[in-house]
Design goal:
Blueprint (H helix, E strand, L loop, with lengths): L13 H18 L1 H9 L1 E12 L9 E10 L4 E9 L8 E13 L4 E3 L1 H8 L10 H20 L27
Antiparallel strand pairs: 1-4, 2-3, 3-4, 4-5
């Protein structure tokens, strides 16, 4: 961590977590067959949704590591969990922040998203079902609720035409601004 990464509280600024997570995913791609396959096929990995939970501050000069792993996937996307973990001192091994990111692979030539099973087969990765953990399920519901809100507030679709039930997605307080 560098002085340019900190905010007025002398700890890692919120925006740098997302930037570092980007680098963590690039590192993950470069260390797996996925990265080579994406470049060979001229695909691109797109971040669709991200969320972070901050547990402890990361002060200036604090040593930490960033762990990245795929924790769930559907046929249209994968969810990666990324954890910032202290590596020294009294907080060694403690998670400072956890992020979840939904990633889709896009085929630029075909102008279409690549099914996750196709991506797994192309990389020689065994297609196995990962258990849906409660925090990942909540993350996925959160994304659907945000999508529904954006579509409704932009006048693109009523909430009841989306996959989010009214009970899961109360739009009674949605504003009428257009989202570009």
């Amino acid at each position: 961590m560098l002085p340019s990464d900190i905010d007025l509280n002398i700890h890692l600024t919120n925006s740098r977590y997302l930037s570092m997570m980007d680098f963590g995913r690039i590192d993950h791609l470069s260390r797996t067959k996925l990265g080579k396959t994406i470049f060979r096929k001229k695909w691109t990995a797109l971040t669709n949704h991200a969320t972070l939970r901050f547990r402890r501050e990361l002060p200036l000069w604090e040593a930490f590591k960033l762990e990245t792993e795929v924790v769930y996937w559907t046929d249209d996307a994968a969810v990666m969990e990324q954890r910032f973990i202290f590596t020294k001192g009294r907080n060694k091994g403690i998670v400072a922040a956890t992020g979840l990111v939904r990633i889709s692979v896009y085929d630029r030539e075909k102008r279409a998203f690549v099914p996750t099973t196709t991506v797994l087969k192309e990389t020689g990765t065994p297609v196995k079902e990962l258990p849906l953990q409660p925090h990942v399920e909540a993350f996925m519901k959160e994304e659907k609720a945000i999508q529904a809100y954006e579509r409704k507030s932009a006048g693109l679709a009523p909430v009841d035409t989306l996959e989010v039930s009214a009970a899961e997605n109360d739009q009674s307080k949605a504003d009428t601004r257009k989202h570009g």
